[in-house]
């Protein structure tokens, strides 16, 4: 594997040399690994969010259940006034905790899960799309080169040869443009991924801190 540079040089896109292709393969492997890791990380973050959301729903149900004790009118419930009062007090506390859990879940959705989804749908999808466009443009250029090389070298084929030269030039320009866009996106990804990997955890920490501060203020 060649030494990894921090960016693909745009001037190399025009040369399309074996060295450039080799370096490009390193960037493509890196983006593929990043896509796989991002999907795994997102699944884990969604699991954390789901657990937090479930905690909110569970505490809400617990609060209602505690209040339901009084409504049961137990036949042997005489003297249960103290139990009822205590359960109502617990229900109030659990209800307050439910608000905190629900608020934390909302914070996690906004600042932890959503940024990574946005990174995957915007940046990683862009890389995938540009890779496909680059591949198609490269195949078209190579096909035009093959057709040109197979032309019979006869004088009466001059017009056909000129037309093929135009097609080769057109597909080369098309490939060059596609490679420039692809290289720029791959370079940009090396910087965007640093933010994308850290932002969810910063959001998670911030959500925890805000919830803790809210808890202390109540």
Low-confidence stretches: none
**Class per helix and strand makeup:** mainly alpha
Strand content: under 5%
Q: What is the CATH architecture assignment?
A: Up-down Bundle
Tally of domains: 1
* Mean residue pLDDT: 87
CATH topology: the name is: Substrate Binding Domain Of Dnak, Chain:A, Domain 2
Terminal Cα span: 58 Å
Instruction: Bin the helical content.
Output: over 70%
In total, how many beta strands? 0
CATH superfamily: Arfaptin homology (AH) domain/BAR domain
CATH class: Mainly Alpha
DSSP helical segment count: 4
The shape is: rod-shaped
Main beta-sheet annotation: none
Radius of gyration (CA) equals 31 Å
* Series of H and E elements: HHHH
Structure description:
The chain is mostly helical. The protein has one domain: Up-down Bundle (Substrate Binding Domain Of Dnak, Chain:A, Domain 2). Helices cover 86% and strands 0% of the residues. The protein has helices at 12-15, 18-71, 81-149, 158-217. The longest helix is centred in the middle third of the chain and has 69 residues, at 81-149. The chain is rod-shaped.
Topology:
Elements: H1 12-15, H2 18-71, H3 81-149, H4 158-217
Helix pairs in contact: 2-3, 2-4, 3-4
Domain BAR: 9-212
Protein name: DCC-interacting protein 13-beta
Pfam families: BAR_3 (PF16746)
Q: Could you give a quick summary of the protein structure above?
A:
With about 220 residues, the protein is mainly α.
Considering the chains and any ligands shown, give keywords for the structure.
single chain, 218 residues, mainly alpha, Substrate Binding Domain Of Dnak, Chain:A, Domain 2, 4 helices, rod-shaped, BAR_dom, AH/BAR_dom_sf, DP13A/B, DCC-interacting protein 13-beta
């Amino acid at each position: 594997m060649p030494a990894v540079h921090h960016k693909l040089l745009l001037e190399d896109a025009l040369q399309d040399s074996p060295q450039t292709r080799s370096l490009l393969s390193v960037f493509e492997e890196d983006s593929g690994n990043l896509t796989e890791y991002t999907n795994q990380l997102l699944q884990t973050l969604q699991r954390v969010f789901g657990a937090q959301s479930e905690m909110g729903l569970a505490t809400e149900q617990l609060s209602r259940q505690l209040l339901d004790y009084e409504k049961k009118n137990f036949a042997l419930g005489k003297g249960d006034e103290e139990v009822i009062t205590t359960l109502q007090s617990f229900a109030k506390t659990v209800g307050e905790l439910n608000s905190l859990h629900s608020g934390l879940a909302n914070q996690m959705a906004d600042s932890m899960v959503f940024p990574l989804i946005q990174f995957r749908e915007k940046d990683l999808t862009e890389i995938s799309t540009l890779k496909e466009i680059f591949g198609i443009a490269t195949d078209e250029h190579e096909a035009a080169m093959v057709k040109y090389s197979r032309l019979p070298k006869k004088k009466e084929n001059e017009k056909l040869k000129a037309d093929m030269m135009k097609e080769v030039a057109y597909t080369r320009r098309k490939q060059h443009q596609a490679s420039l866009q692809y290289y720029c996106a791959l370079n940009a990804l090396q910087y965007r991924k640093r933010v994308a990997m850290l932002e969810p955890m910063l959001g998670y920490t911030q959500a925890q801190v805000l919830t803790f501060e809210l808890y202390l203020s109540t």
